[in-house]
Amino acid sequence: MKKLFILSVICLMNFLFSQTIDFKGCIPLFENQNYTLNKTGTDSFGKNIYITTPVNGDQPCGGVGVCEFKLQWNNTSSRWEFLADQGDGDFVNPFLIYYSTTANGVGINPPNITIGTWLENTSVTTGACGGNLTNANGTMTGDVRTTVLAVNEFDKSAITIYPNPATEVINITGLDNIKNLKIFSADGKLISSNINTKGEINISKLPPGVYFVEINTDRYSISRIKFIKK
User: Signal peptide: which range, if any (predicted)?
Assistant: First the structure.
């Protein structure tokens, strides 16, 4: 029982760790301290929402007045946003501090500051943050993506393409909710793009050679897996 209890605690700790994002940045406004944002749910687009908790409007830190933050997806603008509450604890009219402009729509969680470009919203901060969020002036770790293709959320080795080499049809397994399959030539030219939910592609009309397939699902974009047409 003791071993089982310890194992359960370890598993719970790992789960909790994967649901948090640690942030330090915009030090002139938010002071030189770390903040932990906890996953509080998902939005209607399947993107995770992270908030510093509890949010009660009484965590002062200068600058905007409070240090209660929220990371969420803005589908209208196709970007992740780092928001600061105005002090009411409801994020109804938050301050937009940073917003991402790269590595945006693939994963269910935001990109880290290495692969994402997080721009300072100077219309709110008046430039007090010292520019875009970078490794030189901040950190964002935990449940953030570390690659553009969100491989930290998906094991690419789980995908199988068969037969390979093939002459008529290739089949793709290991993924659910496939939306689109694209075939590229060895020199990067787009050969075909198909709305395909079955994971099957007819390649009978392709000349023999090496090709790559790009797979798009509801959550992932897995790029350029090689196959051979005989």
Answer: 1-18
* Cis preceding-peptide flag for 54 (omega within 30 of 0): yes
Cβ count within 10 A of residue 186: 10
| C-alpha–C-alpha distance, residues 230 and 168, integer Å | 9
> What is the dihedral sign for C-alpha 129, 133, 139, 144?
positive
As to burial, measured by CB atoms within 10 angstroms (0-12 exposed, 13-18 middle, 19+ buried), residue 113 is: buried
Tell me the CA distances in angstroms from 140 to 82, 146, 153, 218, one per residue in order.
Answer: 11, 11, 17, 25
Tokens 């929220």 identify what position? 70
**Degrees to nearest 5, angle at CA 165 with 211 and 179:** 55
pTM, two decimal places: 0.59
